[in-house]
Amino acid sequence: MIIEHFKDIEAWKESRVLLREIHSAFNKMKDFSYRGQIQRAALSVMTNIAEGFDRGSNREFIQFLVIARGSTSEVRSLLYAGADVGYIDATTFAQLHERCTRLANLINGFIRYLKNADRKN
What is the pTM of this model? Predict the structure, then answer.
């Protein structure tokens, strides 16, 4: 598999969808601190995948994918907090949490792939 641009990476595409959904779910929220934190965490997933892609080696790329995966976990944690304090309903929580789980699985699979690929050392 040859990926020529970060926009061709499935995990990046999924992170883009997550970012749109997070912005849509929280764009009218008055708690600017919470809103900003969850939106920045979602943006971090997408940007770390892109930045890692343009690094010089698979090892560096994997480091950025690990950061992206961590940001996905941050979004999930913030979703729990949002549900606990009534910022989102159970349906929105379930949909966004499932999106994060799928995204983390994609990132994990990509990390496994890169560990065995001959992209760059």
Answer: 0.91
